[in-house]
Structure formats: C-alpha cells, structure tokens
Design brief:
This protein is mainly α. 77% of the residues lie in helices and 0% in strands.
C-alpha cells in the first residue's frame, strides 16, 4: 500500500520520464543502427570507387572498332574484343543450358523430396562444389574432357567448366527460395487431388519464380567472370569462332592477356574489356529485375 501511495504521489512528468536503463538501451540501439548504416555506406563507397576507377580507365578504349574488330597482333595499336564478347556469350549459353536445369532439379529434390542420408550427401556435395576453387574445376575439365574426350582445347569444354560453377549456386539459391513458399499452397493443391509433380511444377515453381530467376542470373554472373577454368579449357582465340569444338576467346582471358602485356594500348583495352564485362553482367541483372517486377505488377 505504501509503494502504491508513493507512485500515486509522484508527478506525472516523473512517471513518463525514462529511467537510466531505458536511455542506455536507446543510445546503444541508435549506436548500432548508425554502425550498420556506416558499414553499408562503406560497402557502397568501395563499390563506387572500383566502378568509377574502371570506368575512368576503360572509357577511352570504347569505340565502334572495340566492339566489332578482332584483336591485332602483338605490338600493334587498335583492334577490338568482338571475338571475346561472342565467345563469352556462347560459353555462358552452354553453361546455362547445362547447369541451370541440373541446379533447379537438384533444388527441387532437396526442397520437396529429399530426406535421409542421400539428401544429406547431396547437400554436402553441393556445399563442396560451391566452395571448390575455380582452378580445380578447370584442371578437372582439362584432364577429363580436353585430354580424353575432345582431344584439344574447345569452347564446349569452357562451357562445361562454367556449368560446374553454375550448378551449386543455382541449387542452393533456388532451394532456399522454394522453402520460402508457404506450405498452405502445397496443401491446397494436394486437397484438390493434384499430384505432387504437378503441384511442384504449376504451384511451387511459379510462386518462387522471382527468386529462381535472380539465382540463375547471379550464378551466370559469377561464372562469366571466371578466368582460370577458361585458360585451361577454351584457351583463347584471336579470331572469330562460332564452333564450340575449337578454341574460343572470352572476355576474362582477353583481359588477362591485355593486362600482362607491356603495351599501354593493351592496358587501356584491358580496362575497357573489364568495363564491358561489368556492363554485360549489370545488363543481365537489370533485365532480370525488370522482368520480375513486371510479372509482379501483372498479377
């Protein structure tokens, strides 16, 4: 009774005034929020510095010849990287055709059907592949496909190497997206008598379409910047080549070739090629976002 009377006798201003512990928590919360904002700002600033430096050094190399002509012999100024652009897109196409269906199929199995030891083994294998150095992938494809199947360096081998990199990224990303689909959608489909495979194909996958497309683009963007697997599989080519069974040029290998050369003109072209590679990956990401946003608005 005495404690209640003392509380009633305190002025309203004192009752509403926060105590020391509350003020401390609020100050600490504001400090952590500011720290998180500063970390995000540091990441954005670092990215802008890298992109700005590449754009500043690579912009002088961009001209019509850069996108339409082949590289010139050592020591000569001029030329372009058109064969490398074509080769990169072709090998990414092979990687997508091989790696994306396998990755999505693996994700569907792990999310919808995978139980027991075999599912655990698949999880472990995917995690192992995701952390595997790209040079190891290149050595494997070189030892198996280049030496014993095709018999020489080829763009197809480069596409297979990139596909091995694509599979685990697509599998883990799509698996997480499928797990985010509410179970109520699956149960409603089962209640209507729809088979499991139709539920997965026509209910679960469309519900996670945006995340699936994003995961595929992220995987292709990661594979598009790899150099080591292509050095050991596709090797490179100074001429236009549309035959996947022959050595094929690529932007990462072309950047490496230009960067280690002693010629200033080639150094500029290395920066220009880096800028083009970033623009290609950024264009794919932007197109994906626009497509996903358009599909959401149309619903």
């Amino acid at each position: 009774m005495h404690a209640q009377m003392s509380l009633r006798q305190r002025p309203a201003e004192q009752l509403l005034e926060p105590d020391t512990w509350t003020r401390t928590r609020q100050a600490f919360s504001a400090f952590m929020a500011g720290l998180a904002a500063a970390s995000a700002a540091c990441g954005v600033v670092a990215l802008l510095i890298v992109l700005g430096y590449i754009a500043l050094n690579g912009a002088p190399a961009l001209n019509p010849a850069f996108f339409t002509e082949r590289p010139l012999p050592f020591g000569e100024s001029g030329g372009g990287v058109a064969p490398a652009i074509v080769g990169t897109l072709m090998m990414l196409g092979v990687a997508g055709l091989l790696g994306v269906p396998i990755g999505i199929g693996t994700a569907i199995y792990l999310s919808e059907f995978g139980r027991g030891r075999f599912a655990d083994l698949v999880h472990f294998t995917i995690d192992l592949l995701a952390g595997l150095p790209s040079i190891v992938v290149g050595v494997f494809v070189w030892a198996f496909l280049v030496r014993h199947v095709i018999g020489h360096f080829a763009g197809l081998a480069g596409g297979v190497g990139l596909a091995i990199i694509v599979v685990p990224i697509v599998a883990r990303t799509v698996e997480e997206m499928l797990r985010l689909v509410p179970d109520a959608l699956r149960e409603a489909s089962y209640a209507l008598g729809v088979p499991v495979w139709k539920t997965v194909l026509f209910v679960v996958l469309p519900a996670a379409k945006g995340g699936i497309i994003t995961g595929v683009v992220l995987a292709l963007a990661r594979a598009g910047g790899e150099t080591a697997p292509l050095l050991l599989t596709a090797l490179g080519n100074q001429f236009f080549n549309f035959n996947l069974l022959q050595p094929m040029a690529s932007l990462p290998v072309q950047i490496f070739t230009y960067a280690v050369s002693p010629y200033d003109d080639w150094h500029t072209k290395a920066w220009g090629s880096s800028l083009v590679l970033i623009l290609v990956i950024g264009g794919l990401s932007l197109a994906t976002r626009l497509a996903v946003r358009g599909s959401r608005l149309s619903r």
